[in-house]
């Protein structure tokens, strides 16, 4: 026994328009979803370590080194150059971000005549100790951020994103 499946003209047009509209909406929305989600799903470039300096070049006085790497934003790749302050504390390598934790200005080592053994932010007079600890009574409320590091074959390799000190 066959059933009679008659579809009216109105039902057919409704189904056809809904299907076509859904297909067109998916065609517009899917690229936007992929644009937003794809970079998250890609392997992060921040997991890569960058060769920055030779261990033999480091002293107990912080020195500025340039760190160059490619940063993949998912839709374009950008060449990035950042300055990093690196020094030795005993046998330990310390790599600090030059970005002041107060308002994001750039700190430099030994530029404050009154405190030549500290990092100094000339914009708001923030100060940090050699290990990156913020000096109490100055605007920064947290230490300079540190870079993850590894020493391989006499070279210092850094991660590309500094982390807050705990």
UniProtKB/TrEMBL annotation:
Family: Belongs to the Rieske iron-sulfur protein family.
Subunit structure: The main subunits of the menaquinol:cytochrome c complex are a Rieske-type iron-sulfur protein (QcrA), a cytochrome b (QcrB) and a cytochrome c (QcrC).
The entry's keywords: 2Fe-2S, Disulfide bond, Electron transport, Iron, Iron-sulfur, Membrane, Metal-binding, Oxidoreductase, Transmembrane, Transmembrane helix, Transport
One Pfam family, short name: Rieske
Key word Metal-binding present: yes
Species name: Natribacillus halophilus
PANTHER family in alphabetical order: CYTOCHROME B-C1 COMPLEX SUBUNIT RIESKE, MITOCHONDRIAL
Descriptive protein name: Menaquinol:cytochrome c reductase iron-sulfur subunit
Biological role: Component of the menaquinol:cytochrome c reductase complex. The Rieske protein is a high potential 2Fe-2S protein.
InterPro entries named among the record's database cross-references: Rieske_2Fe-2S, Rieske_2Fe-2S_sf, Rieske_Fe-S_prot, TAT_signal
Coiled coil location: none
GO molecular function, one term: oxidoreductase activity, acting on paired donors, with incorporation or reduction of molecular oxygen
Residues covered by the Rieske domain: 81-158
Membrane-spanning residues: 12-33
